[in-house]
Specification:
6-stranded antiparallel sheet, alpha+beta, globular, 11 helices, 26% strand
């Protein structure tokens, strides 16, 4: 089966410096950039374009609803049904493309350094969307896409280049997706400090082993959560964030040399750490044995389990601390009584995930007038860890994505969307676009990691 291949560099003539939106030719790249960032004409042109695109998006959505009503008609002729399904796929593609244009406009405005709502989520958009690094005998191609989608603010973040070093000097590639809630303070805090804290904890270990790397992640997460809660108490913040982290590292022996296993030198392993309901999914090819055509099939292997309050082990932990869970649209964890915070009274306070960073009221409700709850947190920031051997002959790529993706796409659907793309960045963009077209109204972030043998 086809891999996600990194596109070959193409040689082309130097482009003219033209703003096609404003129909203006500029003398240099610097002048074009200055025009896009500072020109009032460009801002008005963007406003007009956004207005037209938003209008077109609503027209497409109305047509989508109309087609779906026709498809729900039980008496519809099968041939007519096939034609309508084709039209529906085309319209959903148009719907996703329209949103992509709006997201691109948001990116331009964010890069313009504006304040207020224009700058919302600007940190996410300023991050690079592609990265390459060598680990062991693999070269990694990483790509990401981050859309605000249908929400008023952008609280998702991602990091492609958590490039760490083991105590022996081996490269460890790190990457993560973070999904903030109740504000962006916590998610921005994590984005800014995660790399430094992980490196500090890893450097304190004696060597690079699976156990030591996992311990470094546990210690880094505990420290980050503790430090943010200090700020949250002082500033009376209720912000929180989930995250899904991947660390790809080489197998090394006790002395820092080759792996003692039977795998080739330079073989790599993957550690996934999850806090919340973002998810990691590996694309793995299954064997051709027994297949009529003798070809391999691409499958999905989930490398994390969502932390939902109704997960039996999470529910048991929450109730043992005195908390409760209830279904209000989705399953949520609730404090058992009224809490007082920031000069306000909250008769009931809950969250739709059972693990997260921040979320002070669900970490320490007993400090804020809530009785009947034991110390230790109804919501915790301890990550669940899972490791896997990477077999480049079978494993194709890895997807990390927020719950806005997984709410509307199955694991195998996400793998199928990414598999046909050229390059990890295009795969991530395609996945985000498909999730939006499938009806997700959340912030949407996807990060894709592909690999190839090093020369």
């Amino acid at each position: 089966p086809a891999r996600i291949a990194k596109p070959e560099a193409a040689t082309a003539a130097a482009p003219a410096h033209i703003c096609y939106l404003c129909r203006r030719k500029l003398p240099s790249a610097e002048a074009l950039l200055r025009h896009e960032r500072q020109s009032e004409l460009h801002r008005r042109s963007l406003d007009k374009q956004d207005e037209l695109v938003a209008q077109h998006k609503q027209e497409v959505l109305a047509n989508v609803h109309s087609l779906r009503k026709q498809l729900n008609d039980a008496a519809i002729d099968p041939s007519r049904c096939a034609a309508l399904e084709g039209q529906l796929r085309q319209l959903l593609g148009e719907y996703g493309m329209a949103q992509e244009m709006l997201e691109h406009s948001r990116t331009l405005r964010g890069n313009g350094g504006g304040g207020g709502s224009r700058a919302a989520g600007a940190m996410c958009r300023r991050q690079p969307t592609s990265h390459e690094i060598r680990v062991g005998n693999l070269v990694l191609d990483l790509g990401a896409a981050c859309w605000q989608g249908g929400k008023e603010v952008q609280e998702d973040r991602y990091v492609l280049d958590l490039d760490l070093r083991s105590p022996e000097g081996h490269a460890v590639a790190g990457f993560c997706v973070l999904d903030g809630h109740s504000g962006s303070r916590c998610v921005d805090f994590l984005t800014e400090r995660l790399a430094g804290q992980l490196q500090a904890c890893l450097s304190a270990m004696s060597s690079l082993t699976e156990d030591n790397l996992g311990q470094a992640v546990l210690e880094a997460c505990a420290k980050l959560d503790s430090d943010f809660l200090i700020s949250a108490r002082k500033g009376e913040f209720m912000d929180g964030s989930t995250f899904i982290l991947g660390l790809l590292f080489p197998e090394v022996g006790p002395s820092g040399g080759a792996s003692p296993s039977q795998r080739p030198a330079g073989s790599c392993r993957l550690l996934v750490a999850n806090v919340g309901d973002s998810r990691a999914v590996l694309c793995r090819a299954t064997g051709a044995e027994g297949k009529e055509d003798g070809k391999q099939r691409l499958g999905s292997l989930r490398l994390s389990e969502d932390h939902k309050p109704d997960r039996p082990d999470e529910q048991q932990r929450i109730q043992a601390k005195g908390g409760s869970i209830a279904h209000h649209g989705v399953w949520r964890v609730f404090v058992p009584g009224q809490v007082y915070f920031g000069g306000r009274s909250f008769p009931r306070w809950g969250l739709a995930v059972s693990r997260a960073f921040g979320d002070l009221l669900l970490k320490e409700p007993e400090r804020y007038g809530c009785s009947g709850v034991a110390p230790g947190g109804l919501v915790i920031a301890e990550p669940e860890l899972r490791t896997a051997e990477l077999d480049p002959a079978a494993d194709r790529f890895l997807i990390l994505a927020c719950d806005g993706i997984w709410d509307v796409l199955r694991d195998e659907d996400a793998v199928a969307v990414c598999a046909g793309q050229t390059g990890a960045e295009l795969a991530a963009h395609s996945l985000v676009r498909h999730a939006f077209a499938a009806g997700s109204g959340d912030n949407l972030t996807a990060l894709v990691v592909a690999w190839r043998p090093a020369d």
